Structures are given as C-alpha cells and as structure tokens.
Amino acid sequence: MTLPSFRFGDLPMLSRAGYKEFAYDLGKRVGLSNRADPELGEGYATVCTSQAGRELWERGFLRGYAAVLRDLGLPGGYAESSARKALTSLARLGGAAASYQLQDLFHQGEHVGRLCLGKSADGRNGFVHDVGVEKKHQGRGHGRVLLQLAENHAASAGNTDMALTVFRKNTRATNLYRAAGFSRTSIHLMRQLLRAS
Question: Whole-prediction pTM value?
Fold first, then answer.
C-alpha cells in the first residue's frame, strides 16, 4: 500500500499490523528561479547515452530491480517479471518507445555516471528514474551534479516539481536526495500474507 504524506500519522498503527516500509516517494520544488547554479561545474560534460549504453543500463536496471524485490522476500520469478513490467512501463510514459532519457556524465574526460530522467505519469513533474555513479567515482560529489542536471532539465522543460522513488535499503541514495532538498511525499509499505494450508 502507499501512504500519502497527510496520512503519515497512521504509520505506527500500520507497523503494529505487520506492514513494513520498503520504498519512499520524494519530491522537490524546482524552477528557473530555484536553480542556484545552472552550470554543472568545471570539467563536467554530458552526452546522450549511446544505444549500447542504453542496452547496458536496461540490463542493469532489470537485475537491480529484481534483486531488491527478492531481498524483500518476493519469489524470484515474480521479482523478475515485475522488473520487466517496470521497465516496460518506464518506456511507455509519454507514449514514446523510449520516452525516458539517458545522459552520461563525464568529468575531465572520464565517464563518472549516468542519469535516467523523464516525466511523471501525468506529465506534470520531472521524474528521476535512476542516478548512477560508477563505484570508483563515488563519494566525490558526482551524484549531486547528476541531480543538478536533472533539476536543470526539469526546469527548462517547464516543470515546477521533481519526483523520484527510492528503496528504503538504499541509504546512500536517500542521504544524497535529502541533502539535495528532497522530502518524503509518500511511503510504500508491504505485508507478507500467510497462505491458507
């Protein structure tokens, strides 16, 4: 189930009933007037991801999404089919075959990360589908630059808000998003049901 922000007070009751938090929707107000620095910074450059890079990202998306669902206790086959549905749904947003955009981030000529962004299902908000910094480049501020790129893109597209979803176990990403000014707009919960014997 999804608990919107105005119902966060119900969380203790739902926890006692066996519901566990597994993901959060986060949001942030963006706009041209809110951009502190529209430039990404010295030494940074972005390019659209190549077709080979897109295929690589999609394989990683499927593996990662399914792994998170398996960690939540969902059966392997269900986790994998859910991951495929999520990717198909992502490609359908906006009605285009590949409506999400992939951008590669380079710093001083070296590939450091990739951003997947698009719009929410209703088309009103910018949406960050994935922020990925290569392991050897983590902890150097590249994630903040990728988020700045996402905000710039959303603002220039006329969006006033930006949203994303993060799994609860991904504390590194959650800390990055909170530091960038995102706050919770809803909480996703689940409860394991016992099968009748």
Answer: 0.85
